[in-house]
Automatic annotation (TrEMBL):
InterPro entries membership: CUB_dom, CUB_metazoa, Sperma_CUB_dom_sf
SUPFAM superfamilies named in the record: Spermadhesin, CUB domain
The name this protein goes by in its record: CUB domain
The organism of origin for this protein: Cinara cedri
Keywords: Disulfide bond, Signal
Keyword Methyltransferase belongs to the record: no
Signal peptide residues on this chain, from the entry's feature table: 1-25
Residues annotated as domain CUB: 99-215
Length: 326
């Protein structure tokens, strides 16, 4: 940004400062953003990117979130400008990416090339995410996600595969229908990560829309938590859970639940009679429990239970969250 533009911004700032008794915290935050950018532009004349006016905004025409930026800056960053924000000073800028793109902006939506239409051809889709400074985690929100189902017998993703690599977290491979799910991925000390979607047949209709958010730190949960939940109630589902969904093979990760204020325990129960079932456990001969019911006979954890390849282990910790190991 050259001095002429910076001078115009300072004139805006001076005019708005005269209205300080009448403005709220949102505008004050915008003032701070302009001041920071003005100082930054003097130190680095090659940096023409304005800081966000407001961290998040909601376009009027659809449910995605964006960043409130000046319109010309949004265009320079290859975003799409939508409804006005920050008292009509900025525009809600939404970033999208598709196959073979490189993400350099936060809060970007990764979509299939034909979105909102389906994709039904055999192909490979790869996306690279450049990690911003001081970012430790990626949060992936699967707004829409529908790939081919895994093998009916083994649960292995054979036809279609979604995998993210390059970070320090364990590689997670999923397929099927995961709309509404989310996951965190550790990218500490990582410069870039790769998402690869492999489509193995032309006989299935796929669609994906994944919001990718770069997170500097997790305020309350462990870095090992692939999924995080908070609130006084909620629902935990395995990946690809739903109508005609099949349990995915090789899924081993932590789900963390925040311990809310004044709460001292959590009750877990199946949502219905058929909502909780994993590999048949090796119960003792004298137990009367129905296998797969999700109930417990309160027996101590024994070697016989450890022999169960599929299991849910619920452990209580003392640093502000509870962990469910799947």
């Amino acid at each position: 940004m050259n001095w002429v533009v910076s001078k115009q911004l300072m004139l805006w700032l001076m005019a708005l400062l005269l209205m300080l008794p009448f403005v709220n915290g949102t505008i004050l935050k915008w003032f701070k953003s302009l001041i920071n950018h003005s100082n930054l532009s003097k130190k680095n004349s090659g940096n023409n990117h304005l800081l966000p006016v407001i961290d998040f905004c909601l376009p009027n025409d659809f449910g995605r979130t964006g960043q409130c930026l000046l319109k010309n800056v949004c265009k320079k960053l290859h975003g799409e400008s939508y409804s006005a924000c920050a008292y009509d000073i900025g525009k809600c800028c939404v970033f999208t990416a598709t196959c073979n793109d490189v993400i350099t902006n936060n809060n970007t939506y990764f979509v299939n090339p034909t979105f909102p239409g389906v994709l039904n051809n055999k192909s490979e889709c790869e996306l690279r995410i450049n990690i911003l400074n001081y970012v430790r985690h990626l949060r992936l929100d699967f707004v829409n996600f529908n790939l081919a189902q895994p093998n009916r017998t083994t649960g292995v993703c054979v036809m279609d595969k979604f995998v993210i690599t390059g970070g320090s977290s364990r590689h997670l491979l999923i397929c099927g229908n995961n709309t509404g799910q989310h996951m965190y991925y550790d990218v500490h000390n990582t410069k870039n990560v790769t998402i690869k979607i492999s489509l193995g047949s032309a006989n299935y209709s796929r669609m994906w829309e994944i919001k990718i958010t770069q997170v500097k730190s997790l305020l309350w949960a462990s870095e090992d938590c692939v999924q995080q939940f908070q609130g006084i109630n909620g629902t935990i589902q395995t990946m690809n859970y739903g109508i005609n969904g099949r349990h995915l093979a090789d899924q081993s990760y932590f789900i963390c639940i925040k311990q809310e204020k004044n709460m001292c325990s959590i009750v877990y129960q199946p949502c219905n009679k058929i909502s909780f079932k994993i590999e048949t456990p090796l119960l003792s001969a004298d137990t009367e429990l129905e296998e797969g019911s999700g109930e417990s006979d309160n027996l101590a954890y024994t070697d016989s239970y450890a022999n169960c390849k599929d299991r849910v282990s619920i452990n209580c910790k003392t640093d502000g969250f509870l962990t469910v190991c799947c």
